[in-house]
Amino acid sequence: MKRIKFTLQDSRNRLLFLGGLILFMFIAVAIKLLWIQIVSGTELGKRATIQVTDKIKRHTPRGRIVDRNGEELAVSIMVHSLYVNPDEMNKSAKPGKEKTEYRDIPRIAAQKLAPVLNISEKALYEDFTLKGQFVWVKRMLEPKDYEQVVKIIKENKLPGLHFVAESKRYYTKKSMAAQVLGFVGTDDSGLSGLELALDSILKGAEMRQTKMVDAMGRTIADQDTDLEENREKIQVATVYLTIDSKMQFVIEDALDDAMKRTNAAAAAVLIMDPHTGAILAMGSRPTFDPNHFGKYPAVNWLNRAISIIYEPGSVFKPIVGTMGLSEGIVTPDTPINDTGSIRIADRVISNWDGSGMGMCKFEDIIKYSINTGMVQLGMKLGAQREIEWAKRYGFGTATGIELPSEEDGILYDPKNMYEPDIATLAIGQGIAVTPLQELRAICAIANGGELLRPYIIDRIVAPNGEVIRKGKKQVVRNVIKPEVAAQMRTMMEKVVSEGGGKTARIKGYRIAGKTGTAQKIAEQGGYAPGKYIASFVGFVPADKPQYAMLVMLDTPRGAFYGSQVSAPIFRDTLQQILVAKGIQPSNSEGLPSFEAHVKPGQRVETPKSLPALKQKGNNWIVPDFSGFDARAITGELQKGNLVLEPYGSGKAYKQKPSGGTEVQPGTKIEIWFR
Fold it and tell me: Does the keyword Cell cycle apply (predicted)?
């Protein structure tokens, strides 16, 4: 066998080849490292960060909603939401190489947390044993519940449970103005009311919480902290409403009382400034607590002041009356023959009691709500003019208030109206309106003829104090002449002082109003037997209107006439408001005194003399008013240009600020009566 000889040159060649190969590999590795570090470094760094971080979307707190005086109605705070990483929890439960004792962590966690979270142990255990790295356990824990959960996690060394900071909405007055405010979902999106309408303005900024995690998705070390603790909070605009929370409280209390007394199926109350269109109070029943909106049926969320339509009945008569006055068909003194009933084609229309008054003035037609007289006026107006005037008053079209789900109402096409339709429209039948549309039309009579666009947002203020949106008076059109409005105001005042609206009288004040009782439309068509809409609409004082109010009760049981059930609500509500706002009575009768509330035979000891305000420089020292009634106190407070905010009726027993306190002119003095 021939032997192969290796020369020194061969060894050198092999060594050179091996060295070249090593050098080539070194250069290749160096180039690759340079490529990774310099060319692809940024992109690969991002990938690495993504692999070891976890991001959860959330929002900063929503903007506040407050009343016209800055009293908070809806606020948001940051709370904690609990989630579980099932992979982390179950991985930790298994014994490792050191054969440590097995702990059924999902079972322990479920047992310990179930009572605190108010979730069944079974449901929690199922969530804890799922596959994956993120499952919500409970969103938006109350602070006390959060503290208990943190304690349980630490004491029992429960891995896989983590928190995320989220914004939670709180409605400070619970159910007050619930339909106006609306509510938000767990994703901080507005779902109804102003929360929906102003969602883009109120919604907090979207943020993402970033956490360091290992390959299993487990949070590393103590990185489970809230960004809110380390980041300046982002502020959002504040929405000021035109609503006065004191007035709102009064109407809500009146609504609750009315629902109990009348067993009505539903109700709505509105108070509006007749000269600006600002909504001062808006209430609806049935209601709900927006803090827990899911516990109530969806029908309770409905804002009946703007989202239901109904035949207005006799409260529509003043509007038709101004049509006749404007067209020159009637004057307040025009004689009209009331025979108790009238036949129009195949329809007989009667007065509410079936009786007639014979020849009477048109102002008596309004005063006593005589159907036959209104029908005669309607027939002279005709279909075309009735509908044209109704449209001028804004019926058939939404008012444009800044609330969602407002209805347009329903108007006839004059071409499709036959004689009974023309006749019944004049008494408020055959037309469907919302409570807000009806009140707005009456406000046009109260203010001298201007049809206004109602508004409920007074202003929106940016975090830096800049007013980014301002509510203001908007005149849609001039509907009637001032002299026509004045004539109808006089007639409506007589409705309360002499006619069918006497139950709305407030001693000492001039009240203008109109009662209404209309059959309720059945779902299948026609009218529902025995079901009525009872309403009252009016304004005060009649000569210089400051507040216009509408009360609507849907299907009251027992007494159902507007004069029986709705007018007293108007009276009792506005009486409190007039006293609270320091609006003086028009005559010497003044406000009802404490003695009017004393039961027969009840002995009352009254203080001898009312304590007087004492002036100190430009300020005043408030005395202790215990034992005196609202009428006496109001007169004394006005001497120092102070405003009474009353609660209840009867004798004063508590006040704020207390007696002996120095206050500035214009200060509100809150006093509780019983």
Answer: yes
